[in-house]
Amino acid sequence: FVHAELWSSDALLDVQPLPGQGGFGKVFLCCEVDGTSKPLEAVALEMVSKDPPFPGIIRMLDFYKTRGAWVIITEKPENTQDLFDYITTCKLLREDTAREFLGQVIQALLHCHSRGVVHMDVKDENLLLDLSTRKLLLIDFGSAVFLKPDKEYDTFDGTATYAPPERLTRGCYKALPSEVWSLRILLYDMVHGDIGLRGPDKMVFEQHARRETDAERHTGPHLDAEARLGGARGPRT
Ligand SMILES: Nc1ncnc2c1ncn2[C@@H]1O[C@H](COP(=O)(O)OP(=O)(O)OP(=O)(O)O)[C@@H](O)[C@H]1O
Ligand SMILES: [Mg+2]
């Protein structure tokens, strides 16, 4: 599976969010490793998917830079479906299935933490289900950060509907509690067939999303409130 990310020569130092989007829809972060600038997604994948590979995490086979993009090559397991599509097909999952899947995701995330990485974009779209073995694979480390337990993050590159409430109310959040929150959204999604942003929660979220969208029209990613609300594929219901 080939995953191309746009390359910008401005993204050379430390871990810096880049404003803007490109043809493949994803802005990436870069970091300096041994004097060489590499996309953070590839660095994170190297840290979590090698020596030895972890069964619940997609394996990166290679990555390289072309003139206009970084190309990341991962394994492409047979007979898989991402969990978003799987839940869409099933409508919702049985509780014992959801429990089993959640356990697998937690094992994969704990492994990432043990290697110093927090995924930061846990959601159904970023989990591949092997339909033969019923095992999940965590993919898409495009929003990953290095684990710094006490750091307060004030930028967010994951999926807004899975982000913790303190991101909206305080404008900052910690990585590990944020990931726990996204697991809560994922669990709800699995057992209800959707992420469950309704009623007052939905209104508060929409207000914040619109306010951010207005602010970012001048500074950053041009996502509209609807896109933020639904995440990449939009709500099922
Ligand atoms: N190794 C893989 N094998 C099979 N399918 C994959 C693999 N990697 C990604 N996919 C599929 O492609 C989708 C998008 O991939 P991924 O999540 O890595 O990219 P993304 O950064 O979210 O994409 P975008 O650039 O659109 O934001 C996944 O939701 C999944 O359906
Ligand atoms: Mg993704």
From TrEMBL:
Coiled coil: none annotated. Residues 210-237 are annotated as: Disordered. Residues 13-237 form the Protein kinase domain. GO terms for molecular function: ATP binding; protein serine/threonine kinase activity. It comes from the Eukaryota. Residues 210-227 have a biased composition (Basic and acidic residues). This is non-specific serine/threonine protein kinase.
